Here is the input.
Amino acid sequence: MNNYETVFIATPVLSDTQMKELAGKFRGVITENGGQIVHEEDWGLKKLAYPIEKKSTGFYYLIQFQAEGDLIAKLETQYRRDEKVIRFLTFKMDKYAVEYAEKRRNKNNAKQEE
Here is the structure.
């Protein structure tokens, strides 16, 4: 299995429950196709670097997971079909990226415990 990281940006007009449902939908796509979710983060509403579809903000969501390569095409097809997603990016993590992600998670967990 390979390690992947995907980030999608959802339209800013969604409510919190709609955003949770959207993230749950993509988590479901990953797990139903044999993937295993390692970590996820809701980055919340952020300003975009440039307007997309006349929107200047969007909800960012990160999912790190392990899966076979054929899952990526299925996941990205679901991103393209959902009109609530305005941008997405999925990439395969090398061993250094996996190491960095683990360090970052541990650092964030230590901050939350304080």
